[in-house]
Amino acid sequence: MSEAEPIDVRDMAIIHKTFRQGYAESAQLVRSAPTPSPERVTFLADHVDFGLFMLHIHHGSEDVLLYPVLEKKAPEQAAMIEHVGHEHELVQDALEAARAASASWRSAPSSDTAEALATSLEELNKVLQPHLDDEEQQVVPLCAVTLTEQEWKAVGEHSVAQIPRDKRAVAFGMILEPLDEVDRAYMKSTLPAPVRLLYPFLIDRPWRRYAATLRNGT
Q1: Closest Cα to residue 87, out of 49, 59, 107, 110?
Q2: C-alpha triplet 89, 168, 134: angle, nearest 5°
Q3: Of the CATH numbers 3.40.50.850, 3.40.50.1110, 1.20.120.520, 3.30.70.3340, which one belongs to the domain with range 11-162?
Q4: Is 10 helix (H, G, I), strand (E, B) or coil?
Q5: Quick one: DSSP state of residue 200?
Q6: What is the DSSP letter of 191?
Q7: DSSP class of residue 202?
Q8: Which of 17, 81, 169, 194 has the fewest CB atoms lying closer than 10 Å?
Q9: Residue 131 in contact with residue 57, Cβ under 8 Å?
Q10: How far apart are the C-alpha atoms of 91 and 14, rounded to whole Å?
């Protein structure tokens, strides 16, 4: 590949779809049953916390492996890179508030703590959505013409490495669900060959069971 040829960076917007939709659904689920059974509270609180964890490691990987590299390789874009990178701090504040609200609801489920959690997830969305827009419209196009494929892939690999193995099927299911067939096929193509071969057993079935429990309580 020549240096002038952009690298494929479509996976950033694909991953962002999980964050764009997941917190609104979680807020709706918590509001729909603010004082469910202890088992249901634990499941939903775990789901919320895992969704927040996914965003935390996604941004952490960018902070370590994306933004510093961009600043070094594209110093003429330093102001934009610094501005969008600083948005991570605002998102992190909202994320921590949602974590605290989740812990409160987990320990003392009530209409009040459920509403506080749902509201905190909505507040996170208000801060997060414009940041995702900025990344996709400003940072990602710069990455396509500035980073090497190895540098780009390192960001995603860093995130995946931090996901517990017993959570990876759920994580990948969450990522695939909002996608159209083209993007879903692309993401499946990034899996190791043995995992692609056993996809129905390793990812699809575990995710379907999880999603049924999430949405139907079964």
Answers
A1: 59
A2: 30
A3: 1.20.120.520
A4: coil
A5: I
A6: S
A7: I
A8: 194
A9: no
A10: 19
